[in-house]
Write a structure and sequence with these properties.
By secondary structure, the protein is α/β, with parallel strands linked by helices. It is built from 11 helices and 8 strands. The protein has 2 domains: about 1-210 and about 300-340, Spore Coat Polysaccharide Biosynthesis Protein SpsA, Chain A (Alpha-Beta Complex), CATH 3.90.550; about 225-295. About 50% of the residues lie in helices and about 15% in strands. An 8-stranded mixed sheet has the order 7-5-6-4-1-2-3-8, with helices on both faces. The chain is elongated, with a radius of gyration of 25 Å.
């Protein structure tokens, strides 16, 4: 039996977690050569998500649950799940089931052909035309400016081989962009097209603010283009300013031009310079902020509860620390019972 880790991040998904578990298990009921290890990462939900997951884990030891001490962000949650996977490969799937679990057998068959990564390419999206166009435009931009070969229109639905899972265990990033990390590692990768479904229940946990944050992480984590663009624009503006200044001096000294007072021109140039400086300092600040988080070891995922952790699983070299509350004895008893 080949163990396959199924990674399912969840945040306030009380209406979806049980359905996601049942849909995944129904798929593996027809796969006799594979044994599932389902890892739910609960990003500190404030509804009944963890309660339902605890019930599932108590009834099925193949289900592992990792609950963070606070909302660590989607990408950090996903990276922790990848680093915790013990299977020969791992498949990431959203809890809202927009990525159909019924495609898992196809992904496993492709993996058996020797590919290290099998990723889904979204042929159609249930989003509105504006959001769908924005998503596709973002993927095209990332692919164009990145030094890595990032597939277009590919989201989080992917299969990852054990070789890459071992490499992800070495990653220590406080603002990760996981799909870029995996794509940038290379190896044999292949995509397949599929139609993304609508959410089965609940509301999207990815509002515009979260999508914008993900876009910034993707741009900064995989490209130096913003810094280079800032330098290029600065040089261009400086060159134009120098040419205008030389023209003014030559016209004044050589040709005796009686230039009018340039209050408006001076004001515009000053405002333009201040705007450019503020924009470029903001770009530098994004990079420096990530260096700060990394150097101070901030924003590390802290685990509040973990259910059904394998006893023989090796500790990660930078394992997210366990923050048990005052009822640690009760929590450990629940964990042990779930493992049995």
């Amino acid at each position: 039996m080949t163990t396959v880790s199924i990674l399912i991040p969840a945040l306030n998904e009380e209406d979806n977690v049980r359905n996601a578990y049942e849909r995944v298990m129904a798929v593996f009921d027809g796969l006799r050569d594979y044994e599932p290890e389902i890892i739910f990462t609960d990003n500190h939900s404030d509804d009944r998500t963890f309660e339902i997951l605890s019930e599932i884990a108590k009834d099925d030891s193949r289900v592992r649950v990792i609950r963070f001490s606070r909302n660590m962000g989607y990408q950090s949650s996903v990276l922790t799940a990848y680093r915790s996977a013990t299977g020969a490969c791992a498949i990431q799937i959203d809890c809202d089931l927009q990525d159909p679990p019924e495609l898992i057998p196809q992904m496993l068959d492709t993996w058996r052909q020797g590919y290290h990564v099998v990723y889904g390419i979204r042929r159609s999206l249930p989003d509105g035309p504006i959001v769908a166009a924005a998503r596709r435009g973002f993927y095209a931009l990332i692919d164009m400016i990145s030094n890595d070969d990032l597939p277009r229109n590919a989201g989080e639905f992917r299969l990852t081989d054990r070789r890459i899972l071992d490499e992800l265990r070495r990653v220590d990033d406080r603002s990760p962009y996981v799909r870029g990390l995996i794509s940038g590692m290379g190896f044999n990768q292949i995509g397949f097209e599929y139609d993304r479904d609508a959410r089965t229940a609940g509301e999207s946990k990815f509002p515009f603010k979260a999508m914008l944050s993900l876009a910034v992480d993707g741009l900064i984590n995989h490209s130096l283009l913003p810094l280079r663009l800032a330098s290029m624009i600065s040089l261009t503006v400086g060159l134009v300013t120098f040419l205008l200044m030389m023209g003014y001096i030559i016209g004044k000294v050589v040709f005796g031009q009686d230039w009018p007072d340039g209050f408006a021109t001076t004001t515009i140039l000053l405002l333009l310079s201040m705007t450019l400086n503020a924009m470029f300092l903001g770009i530098l600040g994004e990079y420096i902020g990530r260096i700060f988080l990394q150097s101070k070891d901030l924003n590390k995922p802290m685990i509040e509860h973990e259910l059904n952790r394998p006893k023989d699983e090796p500790e990660l070299h930078d394992q997210a620390s366990s923050a048990q509350p005052g009822n640690a004895t009760v929590s450990k008893r629940v964990i042990n019972q779930a493992a049995e």
